[in-house]
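Technical appendix A lists one of the benchmark inputs used to test multi-chain prediction within the project. The record comprises three sequence entries:
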Amino acid sequence: MKSASEPRLTTDFFDRSVHAVARELIGCGLFFDGCGGTIVETESYERDDPACHAYVGLTERTRVLFGPPGRAYVYLSYGIHSLLNFVAEPEGDAAAVLIRAIEPIAGLERMRARRGKKHSDLDLCSGPGKLTEALGIGLAQNDTDLGRDPFQLFAPAGEPPPVVVGPRIGITKAVDRPWRFCAAGSPFVSRPRPQVPTA
DNA sequence: CCTGCGATTTGCT
DNA sequence: GCAAATCGCAGGC
């Protein structure tokens, strides 16, 4: 896969169904301060969705989700991990895409240093907590604009890859909805791997 | 290969 | 007060 020379994603890309956005983000480039790679795994969360933070309505925390599309929603999970989401749908409609895994392409050395220990490329960004740690993304990026530096988001360099879907990971509510999207056959997605047809 | 568990902070009940 | 959109390690098979 190639990196970053295709058109940058604009607000329009996020101003529509969160599920379409999540699916079409597969194959797009995500870079933060020069580190990043190709998105290979996402999940969508919509407002009338018990697993979505916005399900409880408008609070201080969910204010970003109800805001304009094309911004970052970052929150702390299990008191340890910052999880990166892209806000979608028109302002007033709360929805977001959780970025779960990327195939690392740029800034490998800096990412490995931030992650500590020794990690292969396969383990560097294969999970929502891993990739934020590798890219250096934290709560400071909450409610910031994805269309401006240090974020760089690009459309797929060529044909977007085939996508497989499955149930979302790590939630306890609405576990049956098929809103997890992965690049078919990619070894860079988190576990459990989606079951992909061999032919 | 798999299962279980602790770390650690926040937001809402 | 407690559950949480996770991770890495230990130990068993």
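Residues 53, 56, 59-61, 75-80 of chain A lie near DNA strand B (CB under 10 Å from a C1'). The helical segments of chain A are 11-14, 18-25, 63-66, 108-115, 121-124, 128-135. Comparable benchmark entries are summarised in Table A2.
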